Prior knowledge:
The protein is an alpha+beta fold. The chain is 29% helix and 27% strand.
Amino acid sequence: xxxxxxxxxxxxxxxxxxxxxxxxxxxxxxxxxxxxxxxxxxxxxxxxxxxxxxxxxxxxxxxxxxxxxxxxxxxxxxxxxxxxxxxxxxxxxxxxxxxxxxxxxxxxxxxxxxxxxxxxxxxxxxxxxxxxxxxxxxxxxxxxxxxxxxxxxxxxxxxxxxxxxxxxxxxxxxxxxxxxxxxxxxxxxxxxxxxxxxxxxxxxxxxxxxxxxxxxxxxxxxxxxxxxxxxxxxxxxxxxxxxxxxxxxxxxxxxxxxxxxxxxxxxxxxxxxxxxxxxxxxxxxxxxxxxxxxxxxxxxxxxxxxxxxxxxxxxxxxxxxxxxxxxxxxxxxxxxxxxxxxxxxxxxxxxxxxxxxxxxxxxxxxxxxxxxxxxxxxxxxxxxxxxxxxxxxxxxxxxxxxxxxxxxxxxxxxxxxxxxxxxxxxxxxxxxxxxxxxxxxxxxxxxxxxxxxxxxxxxxxxxxxxxxxxxxxxxxxxxxxxxxxxxxxxxxxxxxxxxxxxxxxxxxxxxxxxxxxxxxxxxxxxxxxxxxxxxxxxxxxxxxxxxxxxxxxxxxxxxxxxxxxxxxxxxxxxxxxxxxxxxxxxxxxxxxxxxxxxxxxxxxxxxxxxxxxxxxxxxxxxxxxxxxxxxxxxxxxxxxxxxxxxxxxxxxxxxxxxxxxxxxxxxxxxxxxxxxxxxxxxxxxxxxxxxxxxxxxxxxxxxxxxxxxxxxxxxxxxxxxxxxxxxxxxxxxxxxxxxxxxxxxxxxxxxxxxxxxxxxxxxxxxxxxxxxxxxxxxxxxxxxxxxxxxxxxxxxxxxxxxxxxxxxxxxxxxxxxxxxxxxxxxxxxxxxxxxxxxx
Length: 839
């Protein structure tokens, strides 16, 4: 299979093309800070091997062997290790040596140490993309000098602010990269994370007690709940102020369990080495008293593979915002006020972080290494590195604004938002004649007011009509009562079921409602939560949004974006736009959901949507899991082809554009190996013989061999993008780039075809661009055409009247995956597959 580093890639992993030409040019500041190395000798890499391997020895014996290894590696100084590779500025011939080690049991073992060239024919030069390995090492060391704790690409400080129900820990993300216009750089961004006031133990006891209050005690699997809520969670340890990622919950270990205390630790604590319980350990070394001796322990991801880190839930707190916290309006306002800062302050924070990591002169003949600044200067001088304190400037283009049509009126969207024009009529008004409203008795008057508002706003703004609904009243407000109502009254001719959830158990009712109406009694639904129903101050805006959602779900397109032949030439031919996303819900850890949506018309307003559930046990075998995902995508593509042909007089798409959302840098090769190939396989399996004789084909949809051969473009939407860009030159200071801003030459490699795109208008905080990497392209369309298509599709998501971060197919797939994973956890009924039921 072709990889991103292959020299012969063809349509796979296309190389970066020339920059686009449409729109107007701007120069932006960024959170990129240039880093460079002046070492003319370059960087040499060596493989280091020890036989027998170190893990086969006891820890004391490992220490002896490591000391011998360190003696031999001093020849390479300065050097650093990454895995089994040693990197140095010096070119040293291969070396190999055997020596004996006396083990703790008295036996003698011959150990062989060899250091050999890692296979690089030439040293890594300063301009090579592989020089990032040095900059990542330098970054880690600079952060360690300032006592920043590293977790992945994130670095955390100590707690620096208290809020009513939580604390906030500050930090930053930093990673090394390469960009054609900038060279090597560090991407720096400030971040904040909430720390709960309650300990992990208190949170788990409270949660499990609440579960037992809802269901029978014997139905609650306590161990499964611990694993579900704690594993892979980020926790804060009170005893040392550090953050840890929980690897697994250990029920075979408790604070009463004893372990062997190492000699060095025992000497430091003034005690003898030997067995000690965790209760005694924390009391003696951390002055912490553990009150529950039977709680399970949390095994954390260790920085060293040879170490096992066990945490006590009673001495840790969960981090992040829970659903309950997000519902607390006052709390969220305070959190956002602290974390959602303006563009000018964001840029200043990035500069301050970079200066905190390193600032100073490395040319002094003698450097005092007793301070953190001295250590940083010595490190930079040793490796001949320089780090700029000035944000890098990048070239960008701003695409032409979109034209959006409502009914018979069209408007140019200059600021990325067209909320003010939505009440100019939809493209295809819908009429409700048979529908159902379900509500609690206490909400009768409130529902009457809502019904009047929906008729007034829907009629005047969107040309919709609302007939008299069937009204069903929840007497006890339970999920079982709601399910019986739906089973008794929802028939095939019901257009819509609208639920006004009562205040009590609204989440439980929502899940029951969605499960029945998407699997057993398929029907378009609309849910209005109790707290939303009572917001009198913004009632017009809320009702308008609900009416828009109902119209979109009932296949009444609200607006169209101009997909003209000049800027988006692919849309002048039959084109299918596909969105794929995946979601794993921690509440159902045994299943993950793959969502698949595909456009069916030339306006990208009608979609085929489906989901598949994959057993998460297969994640333990990555190759098997990837193969399962690919298999499901093949089936989804086949269904999408059938739906497209049914909607277009038997014609298949000439062009296929796939937007694959939620891709990390580590997933890129896997996506290329399995999912791109799955789409290609589904195309190969589709030819004129698979369709009914009455279906028509054109020369555009078949080759001389009568095989179906469309153009395919597979674009990955990357997640966790730390890059930020800033418009400069305004008297008011830095501002967000306007919607439609494109920054090119930014893929994770030096020559991959990729770009950043700012789709949305952001009034508060800094705009987060979306990063796109093209994994496959056989279309031949220009980079301008792909940029314009992606930008315009971001205005076609009917849940928001404006630009969103993702193109509509990917945003729909994201919404669908989340809904099915969190509320349904079952296959959706076929009757709903050609509707936007999940909005």
